[in-house]
Design a protein that fits this description.
The protein has 16 helices and 9 strands. It is of the alpha/beta class and 416 residues long. The strands form 3 sheets. Strands 8-1-9 form a 3-stranded parallel sheet. Strands 2-3-4 form a 3-stranded parallel sheet, with helices on one face. α3 packs across α11 and α7 crosses α8. 48% of the residues are buried. The N terminus and C terminus are likely disordered. It binds iron/sulfur cluster. The site of iron/sulfur cluster has 11 residues, from loops.
């Protein structure tokens, strides 16, 4: 073993030996004392900034990204994590729907998209989608999460009828749908209206929030190589800026672990942090690593990001994005065991039950397509955190019994 790079075994030992009672609570905003003995000299100035709630610089982020002391990164990230979220770790009970994979673009990293003629192309009828959601409601889901390709022929009426019928099914069900890229596609090619007007019409029909996908990596040169023809960073950011100015909330993402450099990752985080300073509309950050199983061309040689790299990226993101409250570990990409470990590396949310994931699985992901609430809560408890079900804006809710309305039960915001 390279002595400079602790193995995942060491990481897990670190988690297992943390002295924390399973139900220990700590008030949010209360500083967690940092043990500087465990922080290498070169990281201590950054650790001091974090402890005194000073913003870290891009140069600091690059220092952190180059650090091999993963446990030190976890300790620093944990200060931010516990300051913002105490000992809670959340999850959402949600149902994923991919309405179609037919797409006018051909992003190089995407194994999900298809052209109409392709054997793996699919397109669900509205009735089929409504049935899938109808079947999920008695399970207690509070959110339907719906994204698809940039479909060449679906009409404005199709999208509006879909939203309206889902809204009619259960007015309390949160409909989280469409990436910023889909929103621009709908505005420009389908609705033929400005972004704001399009988002207003979608919201009127039932849209609760837009999703964070499509950000990939903001750098234009990398973007041109991995998703040529896709909207620019400025355009992605502008959709979220517009949505936030309408009072909406959204999540944000980063696709890493392909051809980007650490500078590109830092630049991506910087642009998210800047927009958040401006609008305050991002509720959570969800980074995910490139899934290389089906990749070819410029991405053909890429190997899957290691567990070490994924934990390091989560830790640095937590430390850098001081103005975004939540950091989600996307278990579909990480796998639940590593997502569990990440609860000690800045993460405070394990995403959701999902019920049926297609995008990563069509790219070759070998993780399950869904999780039960029991499995998510068990993973959280085992990591010494307090499990709490959340809504689409990361607000704590108590458990809903299966078969009840999608309305969240009384808010329980006291968990710390
Ligand atoms: S990532 Fe999205 S926009 Fe790009 S090809 Fe896949 S479905 Fe289409």
């Amino acid at each position: 073993m390279n002595p400079g790079r602790p193995s995942i075994l060491v990481v897990i030992v670190f988690v297992a030996t943390r002295k924390r009672p399973v139900h220990a609570s700590r008030a949010i905003n209360q500083s967690v004392p940092m043990n500087y003995q465990l922080i290498p000299k070169e990281l201590r100035p950054i650790a001091e900034k974090v402890e005194t709630q000073q913003r870290i610089s891009d140069a600091d982020a690059l220092t952190l990204y180059s650090a091999n002391d993963l446990n030190a990164l976890g300790i620093i990230a944990n200060v931010v994590r516990e300051r913002k979220n105490g000992n809670c770790a959340t999850y959402i009970h949600n149902r994923y729907i991919n309405y179609s994979n037919i797409c006018i673009l051909s992003c190089q990293f995407c194994a999900f998209a298809a052209k109409k003629r392709d054997a793996h192309a699919f397109e669900y009828a509205i009735d089929e989608i409504v049935k899938a959601v109808t079947d999920a409601l008695p399970l207690g889901v509070t959110e339907v999460h719906m994204v698809g390709g940039l479909h060449p022929t679906l009409k404005k009426e199709w999208y509006l009828e879909l939203l309206r019928r889902l809204r009619t099914l259960d007015p309390q069900l949160h409909i989280k749908a469409f990436t910023a890229i889909e929103a621009r596609h709908l505005a420009q090619r389908v609705f033929k209206l400005p972004i704001r007007d399009t988002l207003e019409i979608l919201r009127e029909a039932g849209l609760g929030s837009i999703t964070g996908g499509g950000a990939e990596i903001f750098d234009p040169i990398v973007r041109d190589q991995i998703c040529r023809g896709k909207e620019t960073a400025a355009e992605w950011l502008d959709v979220h800026r517009t949505w936030h100015s309408m009072g909406g909330r959204s999540t944000c993402t980063m696709l890493y672990g392909h051809i980007e450099t650490l500078d590109h990752r830092t630049d991506h985080l910087r642009q998210l942090r800047q927009l958040q300073d401006e609008t305050g509309g991002f509720t959570g950050f969800v980074p995910f690593a490139f899934e290389p199983t089906q990749s070819h061309g410029i991405l053909g040689h890429i190997k899957r990001a290691s567990a070490f790299e994924q934990l390091r990226n989560l830790s640095v993101s937590r430390i850098y994005l001081d103005n975004i409250d939540h950091l989600t570990a996307y278990w579909v990409s990480l796998g639940l065991p590593l997502a569990q470990v990440s609860l000690s590396y800045g993460v405070d949310d394990l995403h959701g039950t999902i019920l049926e994931e297609k995008i990563f699985h069509m790219a070759g992901a070998t993780t399950p397509q869904q999780q039960t609430i029991g499995a998510l809560e068990h993973a959280i408890r085992e990591a010494g955190r307090e499990p709490v079900q959340r809504d689409s804006h990361y607000r704590h809710i108590s458990h809903r019994s299966a078969g009840t309305s999608a309305a969240p039960a009384t808010a329980e915001l006291a968990c710390a």
